[in-house]
Design goal:
Layout lengths: L3 H9 L8 H21 L9 E5 L5 E3 H17 L2 E6 L6 E2 L4 H4 L2 E9 L10 E9 L10 H4 L8 E7 L3 E6 L4 E7 L4 E6 L10 E3 L10 H11 L10 E2 L5 H11 L1 E5 L12 H14 L3 E3 L19 E4 L1 H13 L3
Parallel strand pairs: 3-5, 11-12, 11-13
Antiparallel strand pairs: 1-2, 3-4, 5-6, 6-7, 7-8, 8-9, 9-10, 13-15, 14-15
Helix pairs in contact: 2-3, 6-9
This protein binds 2,5-anhydro-1,6-di-O-phosphono-D-mannitol and magnesium ion (MG).
2,5-anhydro-1,6-di-O-phosphono-D-mannitol binds next to strand 5 and helix 7.
Length: 333
């Protein structure tokens, strides 16, 4: 049995110049995850379910747990002192940390504290997504928006926590993907899977087909392709959609599948946010031998223009995303 703490220290010693700051940062996320996990588990027992009456900058209703998860992670990250500031789905603007953190902190963190939160009230799995960058402005000067607006290929680490039938933390620092299961009886995350890779062949597709009539032609044709019979490619594929990106991605990573949230007539840029949903999951996907695009371009190459910008999203087993991209290229409206 190996704990997440032990694993991180072991990996850190493989880098001769490591200062332990990234280790401190990941343990802050680990601590936040434990607190969020505790409160999600007793969510039906205390007055924490439901909406809080406010909306976030994207006009979406905030749930009490969204806000709680945001405050928890923010406090855990600020307390470590190595982070200059954060950006979050639940914060309209950047949150720059006080004292000398804004000038001395080496890292910035972008996060979706509680993804899929519309599922919370019905006991369906939700997740936390995080993305970590080195700041690019000089240490000693105040951190700026530029530090947060880096393309995804510059991430130094990314991951998610899935609060499911068990709670798992899955993360990468660019040397493969590792997964840890939380044992609540002893309060530690234990190594469950080292160097996770997508299966070679995928047979699951995940998309909200309720919006079918609003999808671009390429996506409609790809869905039909998934449903056709073909023995060599094991079609028809099976359809699974939880409506919680972390959970859908996690299942597809283990079982082999593709997740799609394309542009729709209502959302021309899709629904998912580039910086704290699409990028971190894309980093994990590539590290696990998969692929992530917006239907045409590699997600990790997109130069961000806005903090809360959205992107169409295709992520999963490489051959499946290749097929979907081909349908997109051949069927431009
Ligand atoms: P959220 O961050 O507000 O929870 O929104 C993101 C979520 C994803 O987890 C999920 O895949 C998608 O929205 C579901 O959207 P829809 O209900 O339109 O299918
Ligand atoms: Mg989200």
């Amino acid at each position: 049995m190996k704990t997440l703490g032990e694993f991180i220290i072991e990996k850190q010693s493989e880098f001769p110049h490591a200062t332990g700051e990234l280790t401190a940062l990941i343990s802050a996320i680990k601590l936040g995850a434990k607190i969020i996990n505790r409160d999600i588990n007793k969510a039906g027992l205390i007055d924490i379910l439901g909406e809080n009456g406010e909306s976030n900058i994207q006009g979406e209703k905030q749930m009490k747990l969204d806000v709680f998860a945001n405050e928890t992670l923010k406090a855990a990250l600020e307390a470590r002192g190595v982070i200059a500031g954060i950006a979050s789905e639940e914060e309209d603007n950047l949150v720059i940390f006080g004292k000398d953190r804004a000038t001395e902190g080496k890292y910035v963190v972008l996060m979706d504290p509680l993804d899929g939160s519309s599922n919370i009230d019905v006991n369906v799995s939700v997740g936390t997504i995080f993305s970590i960058y080195h700041r690019i402005t000089k240490i000693g000067t105040p951190v700026t928006e530029q530090d947060f607006m880096q393309p995804g290929h510059k991430q130094v680490a990314a991951g998610y926590i899935i609060y499911g039938s068990s709670t798992m933390l899955v993360y990468t620092t660019g040397c493969g993907v590792n997964a840890f299961t939380y044992d609540p009886s002893i309060g530690v995350f234990c190594l469950a899977r080292e160097n996770l890779q997508f299966p070679q062949l995928g047979t699951t597709y995940s998309i909200n087909e309720g919006y079918y009539s609003k999808f671009p032609k390429g996506v409609k044709k790809y869905i039909k392709y998934c449903q056709e019979e073909d023995e060599t490619t094991h079609r028809p594929y099976t359809s699974r959609y939880i409506g919680s990106l972390v959970s859908d991605f996690h299942r597809n990573l283990l079982k082999g599948g593709i997740y799609i949230y394309p542009s729709t007539a209502q959302y021309p840029n899709g629904k998912l946010r580039l910086l704290y949903e699409a990028n971190p999951i894309a980093f994990l996907a590539e590290q696990a031998g998969g692929k992530a695009t917006d239907g045409f371009r590699r997600i990790l190459d997109i130069e961000p223009q806005q903090l809360h910008q959205r992107t169409p999203y295709f992520v999963g087993v490489k051959s499946m995303v290749d097929d979907a991209d081909r349908f997109m290229a051949e069927n431009q409206d």
